[in-house]
Design brief:
InterPro entries: EamA_dom, EmrE-like. This protein is mainly alpha-helical. 77% of the residues lie in helices and 2% in strands. α2 runs antiparallel to α3 and α5 runs parallel beside α9. It starts with a helix and ends with a strand.
Length: 297
Amino acid sequence: MPYLNRLNRYTWMGLSSILIWASLVAVVKLITESLSPILAIALIYSFSALSILLLNGFPQMSRMPKSYLWGCGSLFVLYEVLFLSSVAFSHDHEQVLMIGMINYLWPPLTVVFAIFAKQLSYKLPVILGFILAVLGLMMVVNPDVLNLSKLFSVLQKNPVAYSFALIGAILWSCYSVLTKKYAQGHNAVPLFFTVTAVSLWVVHFVSAEPFSFPNFKMWAAIALTGSLIGIAYSHWNQSLQFGDMKLLILVTYFMPILSSVMSMLILDATPQLAFWIGTILVTIGAIVCWKSTAERQ
C-alpha cells in the first residue's frame, strides 16, 4: 500500500488505460460482426476522436516539435489502422485471441527499444525475460513451438490479419518510446485520432465497402466503445511522459491474461491449455524484465 500511495495521478491514468484496452478488443470484434468491418471501426474511432477533442481540445500544432507531430503521429495512425483492421478481418473468435496476443508483443519490444533509446538502464537477466515473453507469445500462436512448418500453416490461415497485428505491435512500441523522447510535454493525441478516423473513412469508401445503418443499440455500443478508447489514449499519452514508465511497462505484460479472460467471456471462445501456459510465460518474463530494468533519471 505505501508504494501505491506514491504513484502520481499520471501513473494511475496509464493504469486505467490498460484496463480499458484489455476489455475492448472483444467488444470491437462484436461490433464489426454486426456491420461492415472497416465501417464499424471508422464509426468507433469517429466517436473516439470526438470524445478526446471534448476532453483535451484541439492541440496547437505550431508549438509542437515537428519530430513528435509528424513522426509519432504517423506511427500512431498506422498502428491504429493496422491493428483494428486485423481484428476486423479475423475469421473467427479464436483468431481474435491470437491476434490480441500477437499485438501484445509491443510491451517486450517497448522494453528493448527503451533500452536502445537509453530511457531504461538494464541488467543482463532482462534478455532472459524478453525471451520468455516472446516464447510465451509464440506458444499461444503455435503450441508446438519447435514445429515451424505448423507455425507457418497456422499463420497462412489469415496472413493479412496476423501481419497487420505484428507490424502494429512494432509501430506502437516505437510510438511509446519516441513519444517520451520527442513530445516535450505536448499532447497531439486529439489530432492523431482525428487523422485516424478520417483515414479509416477513406479506406471504407475506397474499398467500396457497403454502408449499413446501425440500429439504436448498436449506436449506443459504438458511442460507448469509441468514447472509452478516446479516454484511454488521452490518459496513456500523458502517463508515458509524466508517469512511472517502469511500472506501466510491467503492467502491460499482464494485459494478455486480462484481455484473454475478457475475450473468452465476451466471445465465448475456449482457448487450449497451451494458450494459458503461454500467458504464464509472458507474466514470468514481465517480472524478470521489471526486476532487471530501471528508468534513467
